[in-house]
Here is the input.
Amino acid sequence: MKPIILLCLIPLANSCFVLQPTCDCQVMAITRANIDWWVQWDNTLRPSLENRQLSSPKITRSQCNVTVQCDEGYSLVVFNQQDGKNYENRTIHGTCARGAKSWQVTDGTSSKPEEVDTLYATCVDFRETLLCSPEDSTTFLFAYSNDLNASIFPNMLSQFKNGSAYPTANFATFAHVRFDMRVEEKISYFGDLESWLDSLSSNRPDPNLKFTDPQSGSDILKVIEKFLNNTDYPICGSRIVVLMKRYPTEPEAEKLIEKLRKNHVTVFIEAVGTMLSGSSSETMQTIVTRTNGYSTVADETDQDYQGSYAAGAKFEFTTYEMKISYRYSKAEPEQMRIRVYALINPVNYWVPYDN
Ligand SMILES: *[C@@H]1O[C@H](CO)[C@@H](O)[C@H](O)[C@H]1NC(C)=O
Ligand SMILES: *[C@@H]1O[C@H](CO)[C@@H](O)[C@H](O)[C@H]1NC(C)=O
Ligand SMILES: *[C@@H]1O[C@H](CO)[C@@H](O)[C@H](O)[C@H]1NC(C)=O
Ligand SMILES: *[C@@H]1O[C@H](CO)[C@@H](O)[C@H](O)[C@H]1NC(C)=O
Ligand SMILES: *[C@@H]1O[C@H](CO)[C@@H](O)[C@H](O)[C@H]1NC(C)=O
Here is the structure.
């Protein structure tokens, strides 16, 4: 060790760098986004990962040491060229000897380290099988409050017609339902966009059918539950877009969220104009966030129902910096969440739930 330090005192920077210990051993987080790139198709572990949710392991690297671990419930899987190893719930430590190309790995079960060429690691959820893939055909549900001003409909329908108003997916079924009604309505299902649009345009909000008590909370949670209960049309992977005019009064919706996530249903909401009632937006915001959806706020008066809090941009393959300015006048804290969402060419795997 000493000679290296001494050499560095001589002002020959280059030779100094050459003699620095370098750790060439590789470590990498494998997810659905990069698995095809780094792990061979015929790797013997791959069949067992089909229909499983993968998530990124936590990798802590300091100089020539590395620690790799997964969140609770996930199994740590490390790939070699042809096969690999499942470390289950254990944390692994790797050291890379100077000049070496492979890691010496320990996982606490044996004192003798194993030699591993590359730490290509992923976290696998073996507890549950994915019920569908984002490429399977699924259902689009549009739910809208009967309290909306029907004047937003013409513009909205034309946006549905040209496909700019709903998140893309492989939809085989289109459904719509009007809620916040004195008498609950059934969800209507259609096999094509045209008949769905026809039906939608003849079921505009009707003030004569609204709640008797204007202070009633929204019944949207019941509507979503009803949608999930149906057995005739696919639920898994479906997208729900909700136009809100009042919030529900239920303080939480944990059971519903659990079912939505199990089925990879994404919920998007748009709060149109001033809300009429309901205790708070928090229950709906939690549903949206925890299903990897997003919410927007729209202005009713300009007849434009596009969200004013959503911004579109074409991202290039580079690093971006984001700055948000906001004015917030309430005393109680609220969470702010930021999502980057691809409407065109979305990924073909489920992005893990990280909240
Ligand atoms: C690296 O790991 C080895 C063996 O576990 C340990 O002796 C050493 O202190 C560690 N070095 C650093 C920089 O963490
Ligand atoms: C790992 O799993 C084993 C067996 O399922 C269990 O006994 C052990 O407590 C777990 N360890 C941790 C750190 O969770
Ligand atoms: C879709 O229709 C809306 C409303 O007519 C229009 O503003 C928008 O530019 C259209 N988008 C596309 C992609 O054609
Ligand atoms: C959905 O199904 C569950 C279980 O069968 C039932 O308890 C619940 O009332 C149903 N909800 C709706 C809104 O139909
Ligand atoms: C609905 O919107 C139209 C156009 O913006 C407006 O003239 C009308 O007053 C609104 N109706 C209600 C009940 O708010």
In short: The first helix runs from residue 2 to 9. The two ends are 46 Å apart (CA to CA). Residues 168 and 345 are 8 Å apart (CA to CA).
